[in-house]
Amino acid sequence: MIVTTTNSVDGKTVADYQGIVFGEVITGINVLKDLGAGMRNFFGGRSKSYEEELTMAREEAINEMVSRAEEIGADAVVGMKMDYEVLGSDNGMLMVTCSGTAVKFN
């Protein structure tokens, strides 16, 4: 399935707009990853564990959105947008959401 941030796909004509589809993931960052990231924050450098967690959450959110588009018979999702937030009393949860318009081509 084509997923794009643009509002159209070159060479394709949209026959039907099937509605907005969403993908949401909320994941916890465990204590060990927090400890490692805290050390990186103090000494400098990149936090590989946080980057991996973010990558997994982003991929899961896109996959969930694609699954929902497939359920309604879409050929693509156009105009995709993604957002990231931290949640929880100690900011220990990461939320990744994405949305786009499911479309059917001619």
Report on this structure.
The chain has helices at 31-43, 48-71, and strands at residues 2-3, 14-28, 76-87, 93-105. It has 106 residues and is of the alpha+beta class. The chain has a four-stranded mixed sheet with strand order 1-3-4-2. It is elongated. The mean pLDDT is 88.
List keywords for this structure.
106 residues, alpha+beta, 4-stranded mixed sheet, 4 strands, elongated
Spatial shape = elongated
Helix content: 25-40%
Number of helices: 2
Task: State Rg.
Answer: 17 Å
Average pLDDT number: 88
The proportion of residues in beta strands is 35-45%
Describe the main β-sheet briefly.
4 strands, mixed
Q: Identify low-pLDDT runs.
A: none
Strand order of the largest sheet: 1-3-4-2
Please report the total strand number as a whole number.
4
Structural class: alpha+beta
Spatial separation of the terminal alpha carbons: 15 Å
Secondary-structure element string: EEHHEE
